[in-house]
Amino acid sequence: MFKRFQGNYIFYVIVFFFFFFCMAAFSSVLSVYLISIDIGMADMSRIVSASAIFAFATVPLTGYICDLTKKPRLVTAIMMVVMGIGAVLFSFSRKVGLLFLLNGISFSMISAVQPVLERLAGSSRYRYGVLRVWGTIGYAVGAQSAGLILQKLPARWLFIIVLAGGVLTAIGLTGADDPIPEEKDPAEEEQRVSFKAFLKKPAFLLFCFMTVLFWGASGANMTYVPVLLQDMGITTDRIGTIIFFSTLVEIPLIVFSNRFMDRFSGKKLVVFAAGLSLVEFLVYSQVRLVWVVVLIVILVKAIATTTYVMIILKVVRNLVEDEMTTTGMSLVNTASSLGMIIMQNVGGIVVEATSLRSFYLILAAIMALIILLTTFLKVDNNKKVFE
């Protein structure tokens, strides 16, 4: 009887909705939660950066275990339940070292499961967009729920719903189809382990450096925007609502990406994303009007970061040979994680030494530097990636 429903669309809706629900509930107002339990800015930034540090190990290890066991749905389902248990344990701790460890282990599992879900969606009988859109909705609902819980209920309930979301994601995975195994081409495998080829591509190395800067600044922004809004007198439940609407703005950008992403060069798109973030950070550093800051959070924050996610795929496909795309993407994603680790830790020190608005001036300067560096970025626009 159960096999009759295997691969049904509803299972994919459950997987993507509750997976991204967990991601948002855990991370969207984590900085506000940590400050509420008397964690200082520098320690808070260290704790948040733990997920990116641990992901260096959990992401490749998860891929290896999935390939070894040939049971990616089972492996990721177990990881989501373990992640939820780790989140609940996180809520009981007040020691910085233990918070760092539990956040690193728990949230890095979310980072490790996401690539498996991307493969699952890409090989399903349904179009990727009609699956991924449920992730956007789940993230928005998770952010709103997190804000409401921190405002109205004991904070521990926030991590209990993360556990519930993890269990529901695992249940959804039982009804999805296994992702189609990737065919291993010997020539491609040889290319994957040969990183020397990338050292001979100055444009690729420059783009990696720009990605370190962009995601370092954007990652810090994701951590400190809730803190900024709270400092301006906005309650936690309303912060969740603001993040809810800022996430929904992504939907038309994703759905209609085929209309514009291939029309413009990677260089112009980088300038667009960095320019939006530059304006965003300048507003946060200079403007004291609450409604202006809220409007910028809703209209600009998600558009800049979502556009850059798509830019990475577009630029890598146009900078490297087809057989090197997988390795190129992994290197750029590593650069993203490295940037987030650096800026999260630097951000905490700077904010404690100066102020949050001064830190946003530094982030604005980083975006201006990225725009300047695009003048040296040579990338073709020959390959159609989003058709």
What report would you give on this structure?
- The chain is mainly alpha-helical and 387 residues long.
- It contains 17 helices and no strands.
- The protein has helices at residues 9-27, 30-36, 41-69, 72-92, 96-122, 128-152, 156-175, 186-192, 196-199, 202-231, 236-248, 250-255, 257-260, 266-286, 290-319, 325-353, 356-373.
- Helix 4 packs antiparallel against helix 7.
- The protein is globular, with a radius of gyration of 20 Å.
- The chain starts with 8 loop residues before the first helix and ends in a 14-residue tail after the last helix.
Short description:
The chain has 17 helices and no strands. The chain is mostly helical and 387 residues long.
Question: What distinguishing features does this structure have?
Answer:
387 residues, mainly alpha, 17 helices, globular
Radius of gyration: 20 Å
Please outline the major beta sheet: none
What is the H-and-E element order?
A: HHHHHHHHHHHHHHHHH
Q: Uncertain spans, ≥5 residues at pLDDT below 50?
A: 185-193
Structural class: mainly alpha
What overall geometry do the principal axes of the alpha carbons give?
globular
Question: What's the total helix number?
Answer: 17
C-alpha termini separation? 39 Å
**Beta-strand segment tally:** 0
| Mean pLDDT across residues | 86
Beta content comes to under 5%
The residue fraction in helices comes out at over 70%
